[in-house]
Amino acid sequence: MIPAPAALASLVSPLAAGDPLSHVLKHEIFNFSGYSVTNHLVMLIVSALLLMIVIPIVARKQSLVPKGFRNALEAIMQYIREEVARPALGAATDRFMPLLWTFFFLILTANLLGMIPFGAIAGVVTQDAHFMHWVGGTATGNLAITAGLAIVAFISIHLSGMKTQGVGHYWNNFFFGHAPMALAPLMVPLEIIGALVKPFALAVRLFANMTAGHLVLAVVGGFAVLGIMAGGAMLGVSFAAIVGSVAISMLELFVAFLQAYIFTFLTTLFIAAAIHTEH
Questions:
Q1: Which of 247, 244, 224, 220 is nearest to 235 (CA)?
Q2: How many helices (H) and strands (E) does the chain have?
Q3: Residue 51 φ/ψ, nearest 5 degrees
């Protein structure tokens, strides 16, 4: 048992605990046959299970005019299909929608769940500073997880290209296009690097944006807690920090949607470039 008010500071504020990074870093819960099971992995599984439960329930509700959550869900799905995918994929749009919708909603759900301070709530309730790392966390703030998503996108891009154009024609078009064979020593390395940069950019962009926002929020929130503990004139600092935390949280909410959209949008463009021979 940690005595208050130090308990409240160490449980609620990573900065007050002396480690603002603890709010965003992965924490191992247990080790299973040499495989580390972390809070980020658990939150990714929770995100997937939540979608697998909620989406079928919403889809079963048949009505001529959708209402409530179903209406919002259909509006988002329609937007992604008609405004994001169809301009790039054309007639092949419907073939790729399950993949693109999965990317968008899985990333969005993981981002949104990461904004809920499950760990801090569990820590305050149990008064155990270690337990707070067992639950919660932003799955997309883990580079291994975003890299996994990017690898799936990478494989999908090239498999789609080979299926559409044929294996030989796809790789010949990929490496050389309409360039003369004399440029092969230059073109082949550049195309390989370009192919690897695409999933790297997908993984790092998502990871960096989700990690940076939560780190800033942890530090600003830490000033609020420290100001309350100090009292006196420092209460003004706490008030400003609380207002700042609310503003940053609103920005983080926007970023959660934006990063899911960007990942889906870029994946769509990469697939379109692979399946259209003119590219």
A1: 224
A2: 10, 2
A3: -65, -40
Question: What is the rounded distance in angstroms from the CA atom of residue 197 to the CA atom of residue 188?
Answer: 14
Length of the chain as a residue count: 279
CA dist., res. 264 & res. 197, Å (int) = 16
The reported pLDDT for the residue numbered 10 is 47
Compute CA 131 distance to the chain's CA centroid, rounded to the nearest angstrom. Answer: 24
CB of 105 within 8 A of CB of 51? yes
In this structure, what are the phi and psi dihedrals at residue 19, rounded to the nearest 5 degrees?
-150, 85
Greater model confidence, 147 or 186:
147
Q: Which residues pair with 35 in a beta bridge?
A: 32
One-letter amino acid at 236 equals G
Q: What is the pLDDT of residues 133-151, one digit of tens each?
A: 666 788 898 999 999 999 9
DSSP annotation of 131: G
Q: Give the Cα separation of 8 and 2 in Å (integer).
A: 9
Q: Is the peptide bond before 5 cis (omega within 30 degrees of 0)?
A: yes
Give the tens place of pLDDT for each residue, 234-256: 777 778 878 888 888 888 899 99
Residue spans of the domains in the chain: they are 6-275
Q: How far apart are the first and last CA of the chain?
A: 63
* Residue where the block lists tokens 């405004």: 83
Q: Which residue bears the tokens 């997880």?
A: 145
DSSP secondary structure letter of residue 2 = P
pLDDT interval class at 19 (50, 70, 90): low
Rounded to whole angstroms, how far apart are CA atoms 228 and 243? 14
- Which residue is listed with tokens 């073109």? 187
